[in-house]
Amino acid sequence: MKKVIFATKNKGKLREVKNIFEGSPFEILSLLDFENVPEIIENGDTFEENALLKAKTVYEYFKIPAFGDDSGLAVDQLGGAPGVISARYAGEDADDKENNEKLLNELNKYPEPHKAKFICAAVFYDGEKKMDAYGEVRGRIIKDERGSNGFGYDPLFIPEGYDVTMGQLEIEEKNKISHRSHAFKKLRNLLEQSSEKQ
Length: 198
Fold this sequence. Notes:
alpha/beta; Maf protein; 5 helices; 6 strands; globular
């Protein structure tokens, strides 16, 4: 098994990505597996830049291949906000509840439907090669939170073709359609193809 560190402490993200890499030749570790971890400063202007920053910082610290990802919500009526600051939309130390409240307050002045999309950029870096992949899922924002399976904006987001939120979907179902699953499934394919060539 080839070890890869996923540059996250987010248990929800980790569970999703481990699920996607089940049966692959890669063992997915995370920053939760280490006592001393580097500080990662996400100051990129795009999801891709932040994902690469995470992967590079973790690789350079541990000298183990790494994944970085950055994801967020882009709402049409808000000009693509919250975008790259999705996790800290209501402030640097904001939690999911505060971010969701701010989002709903911002949307109060607009009529429904509040069309939106989740975006994810995923990057693999091992000191020599960099691989990246992108995923998105379109849907709409609703005014009342539903479901406790997801995290972040999941309880407010209904994907196209569904009548339940991301927060109401089981992980297996979410992993069929989510932005993160689209990005990491592409990344898994790229990595497996690359491994076969070696």
